[in-house]
Amino acid sequence: MHTLWALNIMVYVIAVWWGMFWWSGLSEWTFFQFLFIILYAIVLFLLASLLYPWDIPPELDFAEHFYRTRRWFFGILAAAWIIDVPETLLKTQGDLRDLPGGYVLFIAAQVTLALTAAWTANRRFHAFYAVAWLVLMLGYLSFTTLANING
Q1: Segments of the chain with pLDDT less than 50
Q2: Which pLDDT belongs to residue 90?
Q3: 43: nearest Cα among 18, 87, 77, 19
Q4: I want to staple 96 with a disulfide (CB 3.0 to 4.6 A). Which of 22, 35, 68, 132 is the partner?
Q5: Cβ-based neighbour number of residue 51 at 10 Å
Q6: Is the Cβ–Cβ distance between 84 and 140 less than 8 Å?
Q7: How many other CB atoms sit within 10 Å of the CB of residue 77?
Q8: CB contact set of 70 (below 8 Å; sequence gap of 6+)
Q9: What total number of domains does the chain contain?
Q10: Are 25 and 96 in contact (CB under 8 A)?
Q11: pLDDT of residue 148
């Protein structure tokens, strides 16, 4: 489970990085817009740090560590999806991109699943969610404006 979530976070980092290219079309920046870029970096750092603690003892059971820290991990993941809403709206209002089709449903599903994962320790749900997250993310990236950035 831990390894699949490491892959998922890597995909998420790449998707966020790719999505940031729209900002290159912005000729004038505000500090508020810059903070969203920094906020993403902080959130991604926190997610990775929860999967791989700074001082990994040799006897660390990653599965047990994952389930013990799941509330933080999935709470921060839900926050990341919530942060995406104003960031996407800023890009839309700045005429940097159109609002992707299905965006609202995608974000609602991601936040709901992340909060459910934070709440439950059910290993079947977590196994399902780890795979479903990757499928949802790759499908969304393939069929939305993220598939083609012309910035």
Answers
A1: 151
A2: 82
A3: 77
A4: 22
A5: 17
A6: no
A7: 27
A8: 117, 118, 121, 126
A9: 1
A10: yes
A11: 61
- Residue corresponding to tokens 């609602």: 108
pLDDT of residue 51: 84
pLDDT at position 1 is 63
Instruction: Indicate the Cα dihedral angle 135, 50, 87, 15, nearest 10°.
Output: -40
Q: Phi/psi at 55 (nearest 5 deg)?
A: -110, 95
- Name residues whose C-beta falls within 8 Å of residue 51's C-beta, 6 or more positions apart in sequence: 2, 5, 6, 9, 66, 73
What's the rounded Cα separation, in Å, for the pair 129 and 134? 8
77: containing domain: 2-147
Radius of gyration, CA atoms only, the chain: 16
CA nearest neighbour of 79 among 40, 28, 126, 105? 40
pLDDT at 79: 94
